[in-house]
Amino acid sequence: MLDIKYGSKGDCLKVDSYWLRDHCRCEKCYNARTSQRLFSLVDMPKDLKAKDVTYLKNDTLLEITWNDGHVSKYEIDFIVNSQYEKFQEKIKNDKTITKWNVATILKNKNELDFKLGELCTSDKTVKNLMSSLIRYGLVFIHDVPPNTTMTEMAVRRLFPVMKTLYGEMFTFADVYLHDDITYSNDYIGPHTDNTYFCDAAGLQALHCVVHDGTGGENFFIDGLYVAEELRRRNPKAFEVLSTVHVPAYFFDKNERHRFSAPTIRVDPVTKEIVQFRLNLYDRSVFDVVPQTEMAGFYESMREFLSIIHDSENWWQLKLNPGTVVIFDNWRLFHGRCAYTGKRAMTGCFVQRTDFLSKARCEGVID
């Protein structure tokens, strides 16, 4: 460990020597154009030590000569701002996400609505939409002609479309094109999609292009809000659902998908919730824990579902032709009421990495 002086008060920061060498930004170690390292960790001496440490430019620049003769230079601010504590502080103070129940989302609904014409002609509208999508987990694009082509155009203004077993753009009605309850007119409870995929879609876009009957209202629940409520009420239940893997599968004549993961995925570094995988329809045989632990899992899941089904958390609305909803499939639970008559929905998925990349390019997140 090296003692690095910084700040006007001469504070001291202990930094690992290997970390410093790993973050050398000289032209031999780092390609500034591509932002990529040019060396392997095995190229560092096992007995790496700083032979000489010099402060330059009024103590804003650090120069280190290593025992193998290599010379590294570092901006002091870069070293200080790249530490674990700064990262944790940034996470703690992040205000980009608003966790919501029905009262909160209705109060802020005006931030969710966008028009296709403005979206297509204004980069500022794109940034505002991305900001709302990150903040609340869903947005609505209005004035979209009710067909697949125009729905796709609206989505592609923002993201590339993800190809899955359903194709790129898909349309579903009460005709079983795949062995999935989606292709019915039955009630579908709150869930996330693609729990049987290794990498579930990050976003889903849906557009009701026709409905000549009754019912069919959609509903959304903010997983971040209800999971925090679970953690507050019953920390043990939260722990169970964030550690016990739940198997999911999708089988039909042409496809065989299977994956297991916790219902609530927590980032091991930030401790923030990063993803939900909840789909009671796609669960496989539950054989991943001993029978002696089953009661604890089911009790935890029942309590979580009871919070999800609380009317204060359950935002129900009618999606009509002309409005595309885009929502975060890693964050929100969604579902549909049973319906009568002819009803067709068109839509698509978006990969998580493409969603977050766009948000970063728009300056919404880092």
Automatic annotation (TrEMBL):
Gene3D superfamilies (alphabetical): 3.30.2020.30, Clavaminate synthase-like
Lineage: superkingdom: Eukaryota
Gamma-butyrobetaine hydroxylase-like N-terminal domain boundaries: 9-77
Keywords noted in UniProt: Carnitine biosynthesis, Dioxygenase, Iron, Metal-binding, Oxidoreductase
Reactions performed catalytically: N(6),N(6),N(6)-trimethyl-L-lysine + 2-oxoglutarate + O2 = (3S)-3-hydroxy-N(6),N(6),N(6)-trimethyl-L-lysine + succinate + CO2
Domain TauD/TfdA-like: from-to ranges: 111-348
Keyword Metal-binding: yes
Molecular function as annotated in GO: dioxygenase activity
Listed InterPro entries: AlphaKG_dependent_hydroxylases, GBBH-like_N, GBBH-like_N_sf, TauD-like_sf, TauD/TfdA-like, Trimethyllysine_dOase
Function in brief: Converts trimethyllysine (TML) into hydroxytrimethyllysine (HTML).
PANTHER family registered for this protein in UniProt: GAMMA-BUTYROBETAINE HYDROXYLASE-RELATED (PTHR10696), TRIMETHYLLYSINE DIOXYGENASE, MITOCHONDRIAL (PTHR10696:SF51)
Family, per entry: Belongs to the gamma-BBH/TMLD family.
Name under which the protein is recorded: Trimethyllysine dioxygenase, mitochondrial
Species this protein is from: Musca domestica (House fly)
Upper lineage: Eukaryota, Metazoa, Ecdysozoa, Arthropoda, Hexapoda
